[in-house]
Structures
1.
Amino acid sequence: MKRVYVNEDWCLGCHLCEFYCAFANSGETDMSKAFKLGRNAAPRIRIEEGDGINFAVSCRHCQDPACVKGCIAGALSINNGVIEINKDKCVGCYTCVLSCPYGCIVIDPQNDGMTVTKCELCTRNNAGEPACAANCPNRAIVYEERGEA
């Protein structure tokens, strides 16, 4: 299965992946409208910065995901290897947030904190490459198939 991979040696820490992710998941067709004051366009990827290294963090779509097992409402499921959220089922208990060992599930600001959100590889808004990988200026973020180690 294709996944998002990050080469921290190439990451510039520009945060463009966050902006393009937020825009791609905002439901808007115009970037300026997506980021107007009062809107809650939030990225599903984030850049961690520190001592000369930058690293993009997003859902790893684990093969045996603790978040799916921990979801008491059955709102998280695996569809073709992609962990997806059914926001109609999410009850906002945040068990999945606590279960994710990578900190990749966050409270969704677009729904007044009543549900969670995470990277779904842009499967709901883009038929091709996820927005973070497609718009990384240094190609530090890639969307590709790799052999299982």
Note: The CA atoms of residues 40 and 112 lie 9 Å apart.
2.
Amino acid sequence: MIGNKLLIILALSLSLFANDIIIKNSNHSVDKTINNIKKIVKDKGFGVFAVINHKGNAKSVGMSMRESKLIVFGNPKLGTALMQENILASLDLPLRVLVYEDVDGSVKIAYRNASWLKGLYGLKSNESVNKIDKGLDNLTNKATK
């Protein structure tokens, strides 16, 4: 029991220090980039589970911020296999991509590569992790051009 709690605390702590964040420039607005991601994900037959509008949420409580949206999506078959290997991986699945307006007005796209998931949760599935990394790279390159 104490071992499980310690493992959870360790996993959550490590996720705070994970630095495998990839940031790319987008040639489009935040909305256009999000729509591009949605289309690519749906065309691949995967699911878009949510789009969280951070600026809209801030506005609803009388605060302001630059444009920022988080899209949550995934391939349930691939994600489930990783969660079966270690259920704690579901803390970071499905996948998320942040699209935001930077301080200089440029639009950026940010996400974590899957390699950090592997290390954080002790996943052994190189094939699945490589598929996720390659897929995220291709998806974000296509969505930003």
Note: The helical segments are 2-17, 30-43, 54-60, 76-85, 115-121, 126-144.
3.
Amino acid sequence: MRCRILGAPEQDGAGRLGCEMGPSALRTAGLVSALTELGHQVEDLGTVQPAAAQPIVHRNAALKKLPEIVAWTAAIAEAAYQASKDAMPIFLGGDHAISAGTLSGVARRAAETSQPLFVLWLDAHPDFHTLDTTTSGNLHGVPLAYASGLPGFDGFFPNLPVRVEPKRICTLGLRSVDAAERQALNEAGVTVHDMRAIDEHGIAPLLRAFLARVAQENGLLHVSLDVDFLDPSIAPAVGTTVPGGATLREAHLVMEMLSDSGLVTSLDLVELNPFLDERGRTATLMVDLTASLMGRRIMDRPTRSF
């Protein structure tokens, strides 16, 4: 497969500094070599550069870094649209606010192919706040709501060329959802599988049913992998840790099933904060998971000595 890597070292949407080092850490952990060893053709497009932020005033005084996030979203959306032509883009964050841009860009590209875009959101949080409902003001909590076309972004965020149909979104691994997000998810019709559903049914049947829907509609699939989808005991390098996340084997199983499906057309790797990592273990795990998604099998997995 032809892959394009694009760094988006944006950290203005998170509550603490450090995510801007995420793309560098993923590259240092061997992302490019892992993909090339699997036979993929890899092109590293470098780093997105946003235009200067312009003043923006919003009635929600809690909002933080709104002008900066808007500038990043516009730049990332255009870069994602360009990178997704005849290749699979892999976007390296940065915090999850980058997905406002990546989803906008790949949805625009998908519309040109007349294929529906589906989204698998692997995260402890649904990031389904609007600019009006967020109380923390941290804008890594709004990208999925923006990309879904929820009201309240017009006149502030860039105009959305094509929205992602909420009924084609599956959130998997949720375990921290605010009341406003819960209501919005239900009203929009997003498929929600929290950790209780995973505990009760297992992660494979839930994912298998969603992938069957994507295949049935001949859809394209964007996967957005947040570090906090994983349990913090195996992935400590994230500023929004929530106990009880996916285990090592559950995470690899998800990636292996995605690989088997052949449906994934774009990927986000977000919220890696190397400042909080332990000897690069989280960055290495994210690279390993990407390799599983891109075709590495259990029999091919290397043994590491520390």
Note: The beta strands are 2-8, 41-47, 88-93, 117-122, 169-174, 191-194, 220-226, 264-270.
4.
Amino acid sequence: MSVMTSEQVRDYIVSGLECEHIEVFGDDGAHFEAIIVSSEFEGLNRIRRHQRVYKALGNRMDTGEIHALSMRTLTPEEYKAEQNG
């Protein structure tokens, strides 16, 4: 199995989830962190938002391609408010 890159993880998420903004970090090939901003998160609690991201990733978490993904999932309004501090 090849080593996963943060760019690949980003591409997998973007291919299955409409994102206004996304950043993925991680350089060990298995553990990643992401900030994901999507209007699809509107009205969803944190667990449902994470489930939506896992759906976009398909079975890559189950197969071990991606060992761990720590994520912050925000709506565009939440992200904008955070940026304006």
Note: The first strand starts at residue 21 and ends at 25.
